[in-house]
Amino acid sequence: MRVVIAGGGNVGKYIATDLRGSNHEVLVLEQSPEVVERARASGEHPGVEFKVTDACELSALLEAHLETADVVAAVTGDDEDNLVISLLAKQEFGVPRVVARVNHPKNEWLFNETWGVDVAVSTPHLLTALVEEAVTVGSLVRLLQFEGGKARLVEVTLAESSPAAGVTVVDLNLPRDSTVVAIIRADHVVVPRGDTLLLAGDEVLALVTPGSETAVRSAFVGE
Questions:
Q1: According to DSSP H, which parts of 43-196 are helical?
Q2: Structurally, how many domains does the chain consist of?
């Protein structure tokens, strides 16, 4: 897989090194010559290609052969830049998957398919969700959004009073556009089947759409 990362800061370099360690072809686009020079001289990013360029410029993306990229990750520290890069990657080069970093939560609503973003990652919102997920029992928590919000990964830890406790997955009668994807029970991951029995204390992960989320919440929480 060929991955082009726009932004050579700490986030971009970490992602690049991690992906390269999994044998992916990785190119990092960074406009600061000093940042690129330090990255190259450090020896901490073996196999990662760095290029000094402004990823917001169409000519720079042409030189990077973005049309051959399987994934583009726009992870600069500027939301406006990340939106421009995402839009160019999707509309001008038809990149199959565009992932964008949201630096300021107030801007998250912009990061959708209109701007070419397939997946938006808002660190503050993700941290909030993970904190809620760790301490909340009996409430549905949104963890991640995909395809501009068209699909969501949600989590709920079943309370003793949950209507889903003691019920099999198939008998939940969840909407067709939702599904239980994993159950975490006593530190073990259970791959759900139709006859899998849900128990109080289970941490249930489900994939939902905006239209099915209310019904899924009702099935697990009773609201």
A1: 58-63, 79-91, 123-135
A2: 2
